[in-house]
Write a structure and sequence with these properties.
It contains no helices and 8 strands. The protein has about 110 residues and is mostly beta strands. The chain folds into 2 domains: about 1-35; about 40-113, OB fold (Dihydrolipoamide Acetyltransferase, E2P) (Beta Barrel), CATH 2.40.50. The strands form 2 sheets. It has a 5-stranded mixed beta barrel. The structure holds zinc ion. The site of zinc ion has 8 residues, from loops. Zinc ion binds near residues 10, 24 and 29.
């Protein structure tokens, strides 16, 4: 199976965090419950990025901010032909190339059918 991304829910106040924080941004608590971050999301905004690092085989990519049903907003790569703000997305996790020698695991959003 592929990688998963997680949100970290404060065990005291319930605030969700992503990426991981060690101290709750809302109440200062230091214990978190790990919950999988996956499924449907909604596109809030996006940008088209040119000048990609070496290793990308495309002239440009879309990056977007998507909101999960639990209200958490994350950034990720969009694998969508024609992004429209408010469109439904399905989140997947994959390798996102950050630079020539650095691959990292991140969200890749696809169009929900
Ligand atoms: Zn808290």
């Amino acid at each position: 199976m592929g990688e998963k991304m997680y949100a970290y829910r404060c065990t005291a106040c319930g605030k969700l965090h992503h990426p991981k924080h060690y101290v709750c941004k809302k109440c200062g608590n230091r214990t978190f419950e790990k919950i999988p971050l996956e499924g449907d999301a909604k596109l809030l905004t996006y940008t088209k990025v040119y000048n990609l690092p070496e290793g990308y085989m495309k002239p440009y990519l879309y990056f977007g901010v998507a909101e999960f049903k639990n209200g958490l907003k994350v950034t990720g790569q969009l694998e969508v032909g024609n992004p429209v703000i408010g469109m439904k997305l399905i989140s997947t996790v994959g390798v996102v190339k950050e630079s020539v020698n650095k691959n990292c695991c991140g969200f890749i959003f696809k169009e929900a059918k």
